[in-house]
Design a protein that fits this description.
alpha+beta; 19 strands; 25% helix; globular
Protein backbone atom coordinates (compact mmCIF):
# COMPACT_ATOMS: atom_id res chain seq x y z
CA UNK A 1 0.00 0.00 0.00
CA UNK A 2 1.37 3.39 -0.90
CA UNK A 3 1.33 6.42 1.33
CA UNK A 4 -1.78 8.58 1.11
CA UNK A 5 -2.70 11.99 2.56
CA UNK A 6 -3.73 11.70 6.18
CA UNK A 7 -1.85 8.43 6.76
CA UNK A 8 -0.02 9.77 9.81
CA UNK A 9 -3.34 10.92 11.24
CA UNK A 10 -4.72 7.41 10.79
CA UNK A 11 -1.66 5.93 12.46
CA UNK A 12 -2.02 8.29 15.43
CA UNK A 13 -5.74 7.53 15.74
CA UNK A 14 -5.10 3.79 15.80
CA UNK A 15 -2.39 4.11 18.44
CA UNK A 16 -4.34 6.46 20.69
CA UNK A 17 -7.83 5.03 20.56
CA UNK A 18 -9.05 1.99 18.66
CA UNK A 19 -5.77 0.14 19.00
CA UNK A 20 -5.71 0.30 22.79
CA UNK A 21 -9.26 -1.02 22.98
CA UNK A 22 -8.50 -3.80 20.51
CA UNK A 23 -5.51 -5.16 22.45
CA UNK A 24 -6.88 -4.53 25.94
CA UNK A 25 -8.51 -7.98 26.14
CA UNK A 26 -5.17 -9.80 26.21
CA UNK A 27 -3.99 -8.37 29.52
CA UNK A 28 -7.53 -8.46 30.95
CA UNK A 29 -7.73 -12.23 30.43
CA UNK A 30 -4.40 -12.64 32.20
CA UNK A 31 -5.62 -10.59 35.15
CA UNK A 32 -8.80 -12.66 35.36
CA UNK A 33 -6.76 -15.86 35.65
CA UNK A 34 -4.56 -14.35 38.35
CA UNK A 35 -7.53 -13.12 40.37
CA UNK A 36 -9.45 -16.40 40.24
CA UNK A 37 -6.70 -18.95 40.81
CA UNK A 38 -7.75 -22.38 42.05
CA UNK A 39 -5.17 -23.64 44.53
CA UNK A 40 -6.94 -27.00 44.82
CA UNK A 41 -6.32 -27.54 41.12
CA UNK A 42 -2.68 -26.58 41.54
CA UNK A 43 -2.17 -29.27 44.15
CA UNK A 44 -4.03 -32.09 42.39
CA UNK A 45 -3.68 -31.66 38.64
CA UNK A 46 -0.10 -30.57 38.08
CA UNK A 47 2.32 -32.95 36.32
CA UNK A 48 3.88 -35.07 39.04
CA UNK A 49 7.18 -35.49 37.21
CA UNK A 50 7.95 -31.80 36.74
CA UNK A 51 10.11 -30.54 39.59
CA UNK A 52 8.32 -27.59 41.21
CA UNK A 53 9.87 -24.99 43.51
CA UNK A 54 8.79 -21.71 45.06
CA UNK A 55 10.57 -18.37 45.12
CA UNK A 56 9.53 -14.99 46.49
CA UNK A 57 11.97 -13.27 44.14
CA UNK A 58 12.51 -13.60 40.42
CA UNK A 59 15.63 -15.84 40.02
CA UNK A 60 16.78 -14.56 36.63
CA UNK A 61 20.20 -15.30 35.19
CA UNK A 62 22.35 -13.94 32.39
CA UNK A 63 20.63 -12.55 29.31
CA UNK A 64 21.03 -13.91 25.78
CA UNK A 65 21.09 -10.74 23.72
CA UNK A 66 23.71 -10.68 20.97
CA UNK A 67 25.85 -7.57 20.52
CA UNK A 68 27.67 -6.59 17.35
CA UNK A 69 29.70 -3.72 15.98
CA UNK A 70 29.87 -4.40 12.24
CA UNK A 71 26.45 -5.48 10.98
CA UNK A 72 25.60 -8.88 9.50
CA UNK A 73 29.21 -9.87 8.82
CA UNK A 74 30.06 -9.51 12.52
CA UNK A 75 26.99 -11.55 13.50
CA UNK A 76 28.00 -14.37 11.16
CA UNK A 77 31.50 -14.36 12.69
CA UNK A 78 30.02 -14.58 16.18
CA UNK A 79 27.81 -17.48 15.12
CA UNK A 80 30.81 -19.33 13.67
CA UNK A 81 32.81 -18.74 16.87
CA UNK A 82 29.99 -19.79 19.23
CA UNK A 83 31.19 -21.84 22.21
CA UNK A 84 27.78 -22.62 23.75
CA UNK A 85 26.54 -24.60 20.75
CA UNK A 86 29.48 -25.12 18.36
CA UNK A 87 28.17 -25.85 14.89
CA UNK A 88 24.56 -25.42 16.10
CA UNK A 89 23.81 -29.05 15.28
CA UNK A 90 20.76 -29.12 17.58
CA UNK A 91 19.09 -26.22 15.77
CA UNK A 92 16.87 -26.98 12.78
CA UNK A 93 16.46 -24.66 9.76
CA UNK A 94 12.82 -23.77 9.17
CA UNK A 95 12.82 -25.18 5.63
CA UNK A 96 14.21 -28.51 6.91
CA UNK A 97 11.84 -29.00 9.84
CA UNK A 98 9.66 -32.11 9.49
CA UNK A 99 7.30 -34.08 11.67
CA UNK A 100 10.12 -36.57 12.34
CA UNK A 101 12.06 -33.97 14.34
CA UNK A 102 9.35 -34.24 17.01
CA UNK A 103 9.42 -36.78 19.86
CA UNK A 104 7.25 -39.80 19.07
CA UNK A 105 4.18 -38.84 21.18
CA UNK A 106 3.89 -35.49 19.37
CA UNK A 107 4.28 -36.55 15.75
CA UNK A 108 0.94 -35.24 14.56
CA UNK A 109 0.02 -32.91 11.72
CA UNK A 110 -1.39 -30.32 14.14
CA UNK A 111 1.76 -30.15 16.28
CA UNK A 112 3.90 -29.91 13.16
CA UNK A 113 1.72 -27.14 11.72
CA UNK A 114 1.73 -25.23 15.01
CA UNK A 115 5.54 -25.19 15.17
CA UNK A 116 5.82 -24.00 11.57
CA UNK A 117 3.35 -21.21 12.35
CA UNK A 118 5.31 -20.33 15.48
CA UNK A 119 8.37 -19.97 13.27
CA UNK A 120 6.45 -17.87 10.72
CA UNK A 121 5.41 -15.48 13.51
CA UNK A 122 8.94 -15.17 14.93
CA UNK A 123 10.94 -12.03 14.12
CA UNK A 124 14.49 -10.80 14.49
CA UNK A 125 14.68 -7.70 16.71
CA UNK A 126 17.48 -5.18 16.13
CA UNK A 127 18.05 -2.24 18.49
CA UNK A 128 20.62 0.49 17.81
CA UNK A 129 20.47 2.54 21.02
CA UNK A 130 20.40 2.03 24.78
CA UNK A 131 18.00 4.01 26.94
CA UNK A 132 19.43 6.10 29.79
CA UNK A 133 16.36 5.05 31.78
CA UNK A 134 17.29 1.37 32.12
CA UNK A 135 17.19 0.37 35.82
CA UNK A 136 20.16 -1.01 37.69
CA UNK A 137 18.26 -4.10 38.86
CA UNK A 138 15.23 -6.13 37.84
CA UNK A 139 12.08 -5.48 39.84
CA UNK A 140 11.47 -8.15 42.49
CA UNK A 141 15.11 -9.22 42.20
CA UNK A 142 18.66 -8.32 43.09
CA UNK A 143 19.82 -9.37 39.63
CA UNK A 144 21.47 -6.63 37.53
CA UNK A 145 19.38 -5.37 34.62
CA UNK A 146 21.29 -5.78 31.33
CA UNK A 147 22.96 -2.76 29.71
CA UNK A 148 22.35 -0.41 32.63
CA UNK A 149 24.48 2.73 32.35
CA UNK A 150 25.48 2.06 28.75
CA UNK A 151 23.47 4.72 26.94
CA UNK A 152 26.59 5.95 25.14
CA UNK A 153 27.35 2.55 23.61
CA UNK A 154 27.43 2.32 19.83
CA UNK A 155 26.97 -1.47 19.70
CA UNK A 156 23.89 -2.95 18.05
CA UNK A 157 21.81 -5.45 20.03
CA UNK A 158 19.81 -8.29 18.50
CA UNK A 159 17.19 -10.51 20.06
CA UNK A 160 14.01 -12.28 19.03
CA UNK A 161 10.33 -11.36 19.13
CA UNK A 162 6.95 -12.88 18.33
CA UNK A 163 3.93 -11.52 16.46
CA UNK A 164 1.39 -11.45 19.25
CA UNK A 165 -1.45 -9.91 17.22
CA UNK A 166 -2.18 -8.64 13.73
CA UNK A 167 -5.36 -6.62 13.36
CA UNK A 168 -6.75 -5.54 10.00
CA UNK A 169 -8.47 -2.16 10.21
CA UNK A 170 -10.82 -0.46 7.76
CA UNK A 171 -9.01 2.85 7.28
CA UNK A 172 -12.18 4.84 6.66
CA UNK A 173 -13.81 3.91 9.97
CA UNK A 174 -10.95 2.36 12.00
CA UNK A 175 -13.07 -0.78 12.36
CA UNK A 176 -11.22 -4.07 13.05
CA UNK A 177 -11.76 -6.90 10.55
CA UNK A 178 -10.87 -10.58 10.61
CA UNK A 179 -8.89 -11.89 7.65
CA UNK A 180 -11.89 -14.00 6.58
CA UNK A 181 -14.20 -10.96 6.70
CA UNK A 182 -11.86 -9.00 4.48
CA UNK A 183 -11.21 -11.80 1.99
CA UNK A 184 -14.87 -12.83 1.66
CA UNK A 185 -16.32 -9.33 1.35
CA UNK A 186 -17.12 -7.64 -1.95
CA UNK A 187 -16.66 -4.22 -0.32
CA UNK A 188 -13.59 -2.34 -1.52
CA UNK A 189 -12.19 -1.42 1.88
CA UNK A 190 -8.98 0.50 2.33
CA UNK A 191 -7.26 -1.74 4.88
CA UNK A 192 -4.19 -1.31 7.06
CA UNK A 193 -2.52 -3.96 9.22
CA UNK A 194 -1.63 -3.10 12.82
CA UNK A 195 0.94 -5.44 14.33
CA UNK A 196 1.89 -6.09 17.95
CA UNK A 197 5.24 -7.78 18.58
CA UNK A 198 6.24 -9.10 21.99
CA UNK A 199 9.81 -9.44 23.22
CA UNK A 200 11.71 -9.13 26.50
CA UNK A 201 12.16 -5.80 28.22
CA UNK A 202 15.91 -6.35 28.38
CA UNK A 203 15.87 -6.48 24.56
CA UNK A 204 13.71 -3.37 24.06
CA UNK A 205 13.26 -1.44 27.28
CA UNK A 206 11.15 1.67 26.61
CA UNK A 207 9.89 4.28 24.15
CA UNK A 208 13.44 5.63 23.70
CA UNK A 209 14.73 2.30 22.41
CA UNK A 210 11.64 1.35 20.42
CA UNK A 211 12.18 4.36 18.15
CA UNK A 212 15.51 2.81 17.13
CA UNK A 213 14.16 -0.73 16.72
CA UNK A 214 13.43 -2.72 13.57
CA UNK A 215 11.94 -6.19 13.26
CA UNK A 216 12.63 -8.55 10.36
CA UNK A 217 9.83 -10.90 9.30
CA UNK A 218 10.63 -14.03 7.31
CA UNK A 219 14.41 -14.04 7.78
CA UNK A 220 14.53 -17.83 7.45
CA UNK A 221 17.81 -18.41 5.58
CA UNK A 222 21.22 -16.73 5.55
CA UNK A 223 20.99 -16.14 1.80
CA UNK A 224 17.50 -14.66 2.12
CA UNK A 225 16.14 -11.40 3.42
CA UNK A 226 13.21 -10.53 5.62
CA UNK A 227 10.60 -7.79 5.52
CA UNK A 228 11.70 -5.00 7.86
CA UNK A 229 9.16 -3.18 10.01
CA UNK A 230 9.91 -0.07 12.06
CA UNK A 231 8.19 3.04 13.34
CA UNK A 232 6.90 1.31 16.47
CA UNK A 233 5.14 2.69 19.50
CA UNK A 234 6.07 1.19 22.87
CA UNK A 235 3.47 -0.74 24.90
CA UNK A 236 4.58 -1.81 28.36
CA UNK A 237 3.97 -5.43 29.31
CA UNK A 238 2.47 -6.61 32.59
CA UNK A 239 5.37 -8.95 33.40
CA UNK A 240 8.79 -7.94 34.74
CA UNK A 241 10.57 -8.96 31.54
CA UNK A 242 8.01 -8.21 28.84
CA UNK A 243 7.68 -5.37 26.36
CA UNK A 244 5.45 -4.94 23.33
CA UNK A 245 5.83 -2.91 20.16
CA UNK A 246 2.92 -1.74 18.04
CA UNK A 247 3.33 -0.65 14.43
CA UNK A 248 1.73 -0.52 11.00
CA UNK A 249 2.37 -3.08 8.24
CA UNK A 250 2.16 -1.18 4.97
CA UNK A 251 2.24 -4.25 2.70
CA UNK A 252 -1.35 -5.51 2.64
CA UNK A 253 -0.35 -8.96 1.38
CA UNK A 254 2.05 -9.41 4.30
CA UNK A 255 -0.57 -8.12 6.76
CA UNK A 256 -3.27 -10.52 5.56
CA UNK A 257 -0.89 -13.49 5.68
CA UNK A 258 0.16 -12.60 9.23
CA UNK A 259 -3.46 -12.15 10.33
CA UNK A 260 -4.36 -15.60 8.99
CA UNK A 261 -1.30 -17.13 10.68
CA UNK A 262 -2.15 -15.56 14.05
CA UNK A 263 -5.76 -16.75 13.85
CA UNK A 264 -4.73 -20.29 12.91
CA UNK A 265 -1.98 -20.39 15.54
CA UNK A 266 -4.42 -19.51 18.31
CA UNK A 267 -6.85 -22.11 17.02
CA UNK A 268 -4.16 -24.81 17.10
CA UNK A 269 -3.06 -23.78 20.61
CA UNK A 270 -6.60 -24.33 21.83
CA UNK A 271 -6.94 -27.64 19.96
CA UNK A 272 -3.70 -28.96 21.44
CA UNK A 273 -4.64 -27.75 24.91
CA UNK A 274 -7.72 -29.94 24.73
CA UNK A 275 -5.64 -32.93 23.60
CA UNK A 276 -2.62 -32.55 25.89
CA UNK A 277 -3.46 -29.97 28.54
CA UNK A 278 -6.31 -31.78 30.27
CA UNK A 279 -4.69 -35.21 30.51
CA UNK A 280 -2.59 -36.63 33.33
CA UNK A 281 0.23 -37.42 30.92
CA UNK A 282 3.65 -35.94 31.52
CA UNK A 283 3.55 -33.42 28.67
CA UNK A 284 6.78 -31.47 28.89
CA UNK A 285 7.49 -30.64 25.26
CA UNK A 286 8.97 -27.16 24.79
CA UNK A 287 9.63 -25.52 21.43
CA UNK A 288 11.39 -22.33 20.40
CA UNK A 289 11.95 -20.55 17.09
CA UNK A 290 14.57 -17.83 17.38
CA UNK A 291 17.41 -15.90 15.74
CA UNK A 292 20.63 -17.19 17.36
CA UNK A 293 23.42 -14.61 17.08
CA UNK A 294 21.09 -12.34 15.12
CA UNK A 295 21.35 -14.68 12.14
CA UNK A 296 18.65 -16.63 10.30
CA UNK A 297 15.74 -18.24 12.12
CA UNK A 298 16.20 -21.73 13.59
CA UNK A 299 13.95 -24.14 15.53
CA UNK A 300 14.93 -25.99 18.71
CA UNK A 301 13.04 -28.79 20.46
CA UNK A 302 13.42 -29.72 24.14
CA UNK A 303 11.47 -30.35 27.32
CA UNK A 304 10.65 -28.64 30.59
CA UNK A 305 12.95 -29.55 33.49
CA UNK A 306 11.97 -27.24 36.32
CA UNK A 307 9.11 -24.98 37.36
CA UNK A 308 9.52 -22.11 39.83
CA UNK A 309 6.38 -20.55 41.29
CA UNK A 310 6.72 -16.83 41.89
CA UNK A 311 5.34 -14.11 44.15
CA UNK A 312 3.47 -16.37 46.62
CA UNK A 313 0.91 -17.42 44.01
CA UNK A 314 0.03 -20.71 42.36
CA UNK A 315 -0.65 -19.03 39.00
CA UNK A 316 2.64 -17.37 38.03
CA UNK A 317 5.74 -19.37 37.15
CA UNK A 318 8.97 -19.41 35.21
CA UNK A 319 10.44 -22.50 33.56
CA UNK A 320 13.77 -24.11 32.84
CA UNK A 321 14.07 -26.30 29.76
CA UNK A 322 16.49 -28.21 27.55
CA UNK A 323 15.64 -26.19 24.43
CA UNK A 324 18.96 -25.12 22.92
CA UNK A 325 19.60 -21.37 22.89
CA UNK A 326 22.38 -18.90 22.10
CA UNK A 327 22.92 -15.14 22.35
CA UNK A 328 20.27 -13.61 20.13
CA UNK A 329 17.49 -15.85 21.53
CA UNK A 330 16.40 -13.45 24.29
CA UNK A 331 12.74 -12.55 23.84
CA UNK A 332 11.83 -15.62 21.77
CA UNK A 333 8.47 -17.16 22.55
CA UNK A 334 8.66 -20.57 24.26
CA UNK A 335 5.72 -22.82 23.38
CA UNK A 336 4.83 -25.20 26.20
CA UNK A 337 2.73 -28.15 25.13
CA UNK A 338 -0.79 -28.02 26.51
CA UNK A 339 -0.56 -24.48 27.85
CA UNK A 340 -4.14 -23.30 28.22
CA UNK A 341 -3.32 -19.64 27.68
CA UNK A 342 -2.66 -19.93 23.93
CA UNK A 343 0.95 -19.33 24.79
CA UNK A 344 1.99 -15.72 24.32
CA UNK A 345 3.21 -15.31 27.86
CA UNK A 346 6.49 -17.24 28.24
CA UNK A 347 9.51 -15.50 26.72
CA UNK A 348 13.06 -16.82 26.73
CA UNK A 349 15.08 -14.74 29.16
CA UNK A 350 18.52 -16.29 29.49
CA UNK A 351 20.54 -18.78 31.52
CA UNK A 352 20.49 -19.22 35.30
CA UNK A 353 21.93 -21.82 37.66
CA UNK A 354 19.40 -24.40 36.44
CA UNK A 355 19.92 -23.88 32.72
CA UNK A 356 18.03 -22.02 30.01
CA UNK A 357 14.98 -20.29 31.43
CA UNK A 358 11.92 -18.23 30.57
CA UNK A 359 10.65 -15.02 32.03
CA UNK A 360 7.62 -15.18 34.26
CA UNK A 361 4.13 -15.82 32.96
CA UNK A 362 0.94 -17.74 33.61
CA UNK A 363 1.54 -21.24 34.88
CA UNK A 364 1.29 -24.26 32.58
CA UNK A 365 -2.17 -25.83 32.90
Amino acid sequence: MGNRPGRQGLRDDLFKGHLKRHFKHTDQKTLEVLSSEDKTWALTQHDANLFTFKSEKFPCGHHEVEESCDGESDLLRRKAACTKNPGHAHFIPVASFTIHHLPEPYRTDEVHELILLQAALTVKVTVTCTSPHRPEFYAESEAPFPFFGRSRDTLTRTGTGFVRSLALFNENECVPLSSSEYLSSSTQWQVVGVIEIQTSSHVVYDDVEVKQTTCALGYDAEDGSGVDIGGFEYKRGMWVDESNMVGVVDDLGVAIKLAKNVERYRELCENLRQVYGSSDADNRLAVMASHPHGCCKLISIGELTRETLLYRTESVAMYNYTVHTCPGCSGAYVYIMGNSHSGLNQRHMGVNAHGNHSGEGLRKR
